[in-house]
Amino acid sequence: MVSLYITCKNREEGEKIADALIEQRAAGCINMFPSQSVWRDDDGVVKRADEMVLIVKTLESRIPAIEEIVLSVGSYKAPCVASTNVDRINREYKEWLGRVVV
């Protein structure tokens, strides 16, 4: 299992991405929560914005499909899709994830 950290514009966009990932069986479960981001744009201007963060539980083999879905459904030209390997997971959850993500 891997956990993906994905940012998107707002709750509506987050729900669209989450729905697409679940419908296409690319993810088993997605947690969503609001966040405030601070960054420097290409012109050097510091910006702030409210965003939605998705934590996506999936299999490593599905990461390329998830990246494609995020790019096609979301509005960001360069969305953050960062993976974290999960070293330990309970057997029941791992088995369930293997059944729902294909």
Task: Name a few traits of the molecule.
4 strands; 3 helices; Ion_tolerance_CutA; 4-stranded antiparallel sheet; alpha+beta; N-reg_PII-like_a/b; N-reg_PII/ATP_PRibTrfase_C; Alpha-Beta Plaits; 102 residues; CutA1 divalent ion tolerance protein
Distance between the termini: 13 Å
User: How much of the polypeptide forms β-strand, as a percent range?
Assistant: 35-45%
| CATH class type | Alpha Beta
Strand order of the largest sheet: 2-3-1-4
Structural class by helix and strand composition: alpha+beta
**What is the overall silhouette?**
elongated
**CATH third-tier fold name:** Alpha-Beta Plaits
What does the radius of gyration come to? 14 Å
Helicity level, as a percent range? 25-40%
Helix-strand pattern: EHEEHEH
Query: How many helices?
Result: 3
Number of domains: 1
Pfam families: CutA1
Protein name: CutA1 divalent ion tolerance protein
Family: Belongs to the CutA family.
GO molecular function: copper ion binding
